[in-house]
Amino acid sequence: MAQTERVAQARLMAEVAKFPPLGNRSFGSRRLIDLYGRNYWETANREQLLILQVESPEALRRAPELAAVVGVDGLMFGPDDFTLRLGKPMEASSTNPEVWAAAVETARAAREEGKRAMGFAMPTTASIEAAVRAGFQMISVGAVARCVTEGSAALRKGIQAWRG
Question: What CATH topology corresponds to 2-163?
Answer without folding.
Answer: TIM Barrel (3.20.20)
